[in-house]
Amino acid sequence: MIHFRQAAAQDLERIVEMLADDDLGSQRERFEDPLPPCYMKAFEAIDADPNNELVVACEGNAVIGVFQITFTPYITHQGGWRATIEGVRTCSAVRGRGIGAKLIEWGISLAKERGCHLVQLTTDKKRTDALRFYERLGFQNTHEGLKMKL
Amino acid sequence: MIHFRQAAAQDLERIVEMLADDDLGSQRERFEDPLPPCYMKAFEAIDADPNNELVVACEGNAVIGVFQITFTPYITHQGGWRATIEGVRTCSAVRGRGIGAKLIEWGISLAKERGCHLVQLTTDKKRTDALRFYERLGFQNTHEGLKMKL
């Protein structure tokens, strides 16, 4: 039985482990002991922000998935709020069990609770499986996602 | 001479006018007199949020452009902050003068000031000119931008 809850500080090591256990994530995360303090600093900023939630999926006591969801008020679309999902990962041991879909469905339910008119995310064009996954869940691939490193 | 400042409540009518003066925007905005209250509600939410800024470009007293920028702490990328730009418009009378590029450059400078490692945006695949515009400014089209209406 899977349940979802807001991440706590003690989940952070496990969260970074999942983020790093990924082709792209392994190149940009630092899953080290002790964890680099930058992660706790980000955790605290998210935790303090009422429009930002870090959510974990748990099976019993084990954290098996994570995503971050941000709620943003915009002037566009008649002043509508949007939810943005980012940093979605499930632990490799549970892949193939549909946990990823449950994570996203949970994110969608949070977006609805908050009255968002839209839920959005970007996915790296290299992640062709992820694109198909999101399209199966009902996302429309209508936009280009542009990034600039600073 | 163009200058930038945070939008004030009295700019809102002009901002919605610019958002609506656009092929896609005209289908989804309501530039009416009086302005539907949903816009002021969104303005107040943005104004109250320290991680969210509505910025206008002005020439003398005239508002000639607008964009919204949101600063978000993430766990991914070693706890890096990102800036997301949305709702970029210039007034039709000034198009062709490079004002759009100045808007985005201003957004990039705000993102740098806030220590963001990345600035990002999505653009509708139907806006082929916009895609070329952002690529010329140095954005990489690395991601798919997926949306789901709720």
UniProtKB/TrEMBL annotation, chains A, B:
PROSITE patterns: GNAT (PS51186)
One example GO MF annotation: acyltransferase activity, transferring groups other than amino-acyl groups
Keyword Transferase: yes
The protein's name in its UniProt record: Acetyltransferase (GNAT) family protein
Top-rank taxon, per record: Bacteria
Keywords: Acyltransferase, Transferase
Pfam entry (one): Acetyltransf_1
N-acetyltransferase domain mapped to chain residues: 2-150
Keyword Acyltransferase recorded: yes
Source organism: Mesobacillus foraminis
